[in-house]
Amino acid sequence: MSKTIAALKQMHNIERFATEIYRVQRRAFKDKISINKMTAAMHNEQEHIDDLLECIISQGETKSWMGTAFEVMGKFLGFLSTLLGRQFVFWADAKIEQRAIKDYGIFLKTINFDAKSKRIVVKNLNDEKVHLRSWQDALGRLTGKPPKDTRYMT
Ligand SMILES: [Fe+2]
Ligand SMILES: [Fe+2]
After folding, report:
1. CB-hemisphere CA count at 13 Å for 106?
2. Quick one: pLDDT at residue 94?
3. Which residues have C-beta within 8 Å of that of residue 138, sequence separation ≥ 6?
4. Domain locations in the chain?
5. Hey, what's the torsion of the CAs at 111, 52, 6, 124, to 10 degrees?
6. Which residues surround ligand 1, an ion (CB under 5 A)?
7. Partner of 74 for a Cys bridge, out of 17, 43, 62, 109, CB 3.0 to 4.6 A?
8. What is the distance between the alpha carbons of residues 1 and 141, in angstroms, rounded to a whole number?
């Protein structure tokens, strides 16, 4: 398997993980604004999944067989986080987005993507930055404090 395909499959798995986390976490909220935000993030992550899969398929490959395990893990961790409260949910989500931004950044530096894949990776990276900002802002509103960890915030 080429490095490009391996990277696309890894990102596809991580997006499936994130999507399931947000899907489950919506239950932690009662207010419409938070539910809508979480739902919008979930749909945006689903777009990332679909775009990455299209790239993988267009290169004659299939998605990773481990994807289902990532989804199950996402559901489980999403559920666990909801037990720990909204503050933990936003904190954990900011961590997830930071990790995604870091991984996308490393892939962009180290993998020689074709133009279409690169466009998608850059778009996803920028979307993750918006998500990170959104979770950090939500956390700030809950705690009344500015974010402690400002890595990857733009
Ligand atoms: Fe994503
Ligand atoms: Fe994201």
Report:
1. 10
2. 95
3. 34, 37, 90
4. 3-143
5. 40
6. 15, 45, 48
7. 17
8. 45
From the CA of 124, the nearest ligand is 1
For the whole prediction, is pTM greater than 0.85? yes
CA of 101 to the centre of ligand 2 (A): 8
> Residue with structure tokens 């489980």?
76
Query: Side chain identity at 104, as an amino acid letter?
Result: Y
Question: Minimal CA–CA distance to 41: which of 97, 121, 102?
Answer: 97
Tokens 């919506």 belong to residue: 26
Task: Please tell me the distance between residue 105's alpha carbon and the centre of ligand 1 in angstroms.
Answer: 13
Please write the tens of the pLDDT for every residue from 53-100.
Answer: 999 999 999 999 999 999 999 999 999 999 999 999 999 999 999 999
Q: How far is the CA of 93 from the centre of ligand 2 (A)?
A: 8
Residue 44 pLDDT exceeds 80: yes
Query: Ligand 2 center to residue 15 CA distance, Å?
Result: 8
Q: Cα–Cα distance between 89 and 27 in angstroms, integer?
A: 11
Q: What is the CATH number of domain 3-143?
A: 1.20.1260.10
For residue 149 the two structure tokens come to 């960890």
- Quote the Cα angle for 20-79-56, to 5°: 15
